[in-house]
Amino acid sequence: MNTYLKTSLFALIIGTLSSIEHLAAQSEPTYNSPYSILGIGDLVDQQFAASQGMAGLSAAYHDPFHLNPLNPASLGWLRTTAFETAVFGNFAQQEASNGQTDGVWSGNLNYMALGFTLRNPINEALDRIIPTFGAGMMFSLVPYSNVSYDIEVTSPLSESLNSIGAFQGTGGTYRLNWGTGVRYKTFSFGVNLGYLFGRINNTRRVFLEDETVYYFDDFADDINLNGFIWNIGLGYDYEFKEVNKDGELKPNGKKIAFGAYFNTDNSFNTDSDRLYRRVYSITGSSTLPVDLRSDTIVNEVGVGRSGTLPAAFTFGASYIDENKLLVGIEYNATLWSNYQNEAKPDQLNNIFRISAGVEWVPDFLSYNNYLERVRYRLGAFYQNDPRSFDGEQLTKLGATFGMGLPLILPNRQTSFINIALEGGRFGLQDVITENYIKFTLGFTLNDNSWFFKRKFD
To answer: Do residues 372 and 403 make contact, with C-beta atoms less than 8 angstroms apart?
Structure first.
């Protein structure tokens, strides 16, 4: 294993441990997303930067240089060791139904992953083997959901009395994943096994104050969540063939790829702490702490409960002209009506997502025009959200643009800087809508010396 790969593996391990420590220390919202008060928060797209530029295509997407964490069957096509990581920045202009607006910035580390092929292409070239079998493996850490909101609502009860509700939430869940995939000729199969973990903190305070009475209700829920999740992926490529100069029928580099991945319901466990109390003053003022009284309503520590994450299915197809063009379409359905969480019950709805994307390379062999070697990506998608208000589900509509900028590292292996830009609209017109733009900067570092067997004459 060369120095570059040792450094990448070390960075993945240290980054994973640092991320877990950082998550446990979170105490305040990093941005304000009011809808994350429901369910387990805002669901985070699991795709990596290259796929994000094509509206998140994943079912029928496989690439010899890039990792696809959603369909593990794609690992059978991996032809190099790849270390991937990315950062993102997001700006959302939120608008409430009463016309109030607010601009919200957010950003963070997006993901980390290390994948490698179990059959080295250099060995195959030296042995003059035309490979019919491929196998790959991957480890990754990816956010699964995010909870971050800070809301205050004032309700007049009389001319001199107002009720003020303050709601705050932090935390989220993360997926630590191991995936493996195998390929025989144009058939591929893979399995993802993941560990879902995280902590969600919710607080609710209701204040009531006038000249004769002062009190507030303070409700705090801390939920630790963990469980094992999985999915299975399948793939098949139909290759077009033509007769070569030797009169043999051989693939011509054009094909149609079909892919799918799915999972049944996954269970999880929670460990919850609850502290509900009422604080009041006998003088009707909050300025004299000596007069404050506190009554505990609920005090629970370490209460174990269970929950269920829903079954999901994704299917896609892509037309591929190798090293030139990829055009794909994809459909996803997730049965969020099966979601259960005894620690924080919420009623969610089934969802679907439709995506379409394209990747184009003008001339990947160009030696005097760098822009012709760049991978240009476009995409668009529409989806609804498991959360709803008054029976109407949230929706999300967006378009994407991306570029894969090839780099030649000292080991002569092509690596990439992947840029993805996504803009769209999310929410409900009669509640809160947000126009957002998200920028992702990803790094894909490749090396093909993993498992390289040196031979001497």
So the answer is: no
Could you read off the pLDDT of 343-402 as tens digits, one per residue? 999 999 999 999 999 999 999 888 889 999 999 999 999 999 999 988 899 999 999 999
Nearest to 331 by CA among 421, 266, 259, 422: 259
Q: Which two tokens stand for residue 365?
A: 């062999």
User: Nearest 5°: phi and psi at 396?
Assistant: -140, 130
Residue 390 Cα to chain centre, angstroms: 28
Match 């609710």 to its residue by tokens.
204
Query: Which residues are 292's β-sheet partners?
Result: 281
Contact 50, 442 (CB under 8 A): yes
Q: Which candidate, 69, 26, 36, 24, places its Cα nearest to that of 51?
A: 69
Burial class (CB in 10 A: 0-12, 13-18, 19+), 194: buried
Tell how strand 133-146 and strand 42-43 pair up: antiparallel
Residue 26: per-residue pLDDT: 44
Cα Rg for the chain, rounded, in angstroms? Answer: 26
What number of CA atoms fall less than 13 Å from residue 436's CA on the CB side? 23
Longest distance between any two alpha carbons in the chain, whole Å = 99
